[in-house]
Amino acid sequence: MNKNLIYFLLAITFIASCRKDDDNVFDKSPDERLNETLKNYQAAITGSPYGWNANMITGDGGSYRFYFSFNDSNRVQMYSDFDSTTATVIKESSYRLKALQQPSLIFDTYSYLHILSDPDAGVNGGTYGQGLKGDFEFRIDTVTADSISLTGRFNGSKLSLRKAAQADRSIWANKQVTNGVVNFKNYWKFLLYFRRLTYSGTQYELQFDTTVKKVTVSWTSGANTQSVTRGYYFWANGVYFSDPVVNGSATVPGFSITSFNAGSQIMNVTVNGTAATITGFSTPINPDVRNASNRWWQQGAASDFYWISFDGFHVNGVDDAYNIKSIKNDTAKFYFLLYKPNTNGVDAFFTIYRDTLDNSLDVESGSWVSMNVTSSSGRARFSEVQERSPWPAGAATTTRNQMFNGSGYYIVQSSSFSYDMVSIADAKVWITWFWLF
Predict the structure, then answer these.
(1) Pfam families from the xrefs (predicted)?
(2) What's this model's pTM, rounded to 2 decimal places?
(3) Residue 131 pLDDT greater than 80, yes or no
């Protein structure tokens, strides 16, 4: 009983000793602390005299380069490597620092950042309703003396800012990023499908996926073949990787483009300041070609959807080289080529027309086909089992004959929704199949 009384008196004494002014651990209210944090962030983003270089990794994994210069009037000027216009014309818009569950940086008027998240695929080449899965509202993760890391609030894109030097700002202002965007267009003028960068005695195959700005780099080291995938961005007259490609003691951060000779089909570049070249080749290095043929076929066989091609075969630098888009039948015009694996035990290779009067689709010509793959190389050969309906003379028949070329094709995955089928007999011939239906 005495012990209980002692415990009771001790408890009363403890409670009495807890004065009200000891309840606050912090010397400022939550609102005051939040306002101070936002003020510090404002000072940080406006405190870089030459602005910020920024990299965004979108929700799709695409890599985009930006330049930002913030002022105290909540205005921001920016460049972007999205295209030659955004890399050349500085864009001004507004920004806000605001508490949205946690401190956030919001670009609140349409800017180059908004292009990546625009739901209109016609604006950015992305997916309708999603765009390229960029963001324009970001939560602030970390702030250091020379960097800021942020995460997009909707698509989870990563935006990293690093203080720019005067030389960095000059690269944008002097249009060296624009030069990189423009010079890279010459890369698509190679006639041969496969392209390799030759640097320091090694050939690096380059496969660019422009839909998400990624590049797969493949090379042979001894008896082994290596492949890595990186984001890429435009910088200093060329193309640079989000992380350098490391091959033993050699490091490839990207390349600056010096010139392109369409006649000799040689692109002169520099890597780490050393002269190098990019040229076309007839055969691939990337070992994925051994698997891509079956992957392409299985995707079509396991679904009710189809592989389609709007342009037919690309030959010697010319899209729709056989002019298949010109064919028509009364009021119906060519719309696309269709390849459907595993249609009642065989594959379907058809020409699909669209009637201009009622927009209905119809099979005008086509064949039942079998596809055979050589597992060691991935070579795919197509043979005609039976003609479903006659192929008209001209562009349609030429397309049919090319499809059944006995040398076969390498099949290369060119994006998440497309494959290129490259002629083994002549790597200047290929067709792109899209997964759209």
Answers:
(1) DUF4302
(2) 0.88
(3) yes
